[in-house]
Amino acid sequence: MTRSSIKLGRIFGIEISAHISWAIIVVLVTLSLVSYFGMTQPDWSLTMRWGASIVTALLFFGSVLVHELAHSLVAKRYGIPVRSITLFLFGGVSQIESEAKRPSEEFWIAIVGPLTRFAIGALAGIIFVITSTNTVIGAVAGWLAGVNVVLAIFNMLPGFPLDGGRVMRSLIWFKTGNVRKATRIEARVGQGIAAIMMLTGLWMF
Length: 205
What we know:
The chain is α+β, with helices and mostly antiparallel strands. The protein has helices spanning 22-40, 46-77, 103-130, 136-155, 163-176, 179-204; strands at residues 5-11, 14-19, 82-88, 91-96. The protein has a 4-stranded mixed β-sheet. It is globular.
């Protein structure tokens, strides 16, 4: 992943880069938003739809970066080195160089990501409420509020590799005092959740 990434800069001493696959999802999200705003804002001109879509896509990926920065900064607070953050096709990944030494550290490093998304969603929701839905700001804020809250809830599912799985592992680790046992349990839970999601997708199809 590192060899196929473009360096974007540094934030708080953490190198930020984007994998080439990130460009694909940026284009797909932007095109999806053009269609979305076309349906929800029929009075907008084509230029307005494209402008709002590009801004919304950039703000969305900005929220992805903030999510990963939250993980990284808490890890650094506990003395755990963070090499970089890479944006890629499915979101972002923080390259934290070592595991947490205590379950409490694991808990806070993991849970801060979904909490950050909830905070972003709440802020966007407040902006949406105080502005008109028909305005560009209101429409953009409404979309960002919904998607961030949904992603925060999804990310709290209690299975690896989601943040919720790491939160649950930290709790099992705290209860049993055995990080390997906690990891094995959460790996199985993650497999179960993945199987349920695949079966649900097939059933919906």
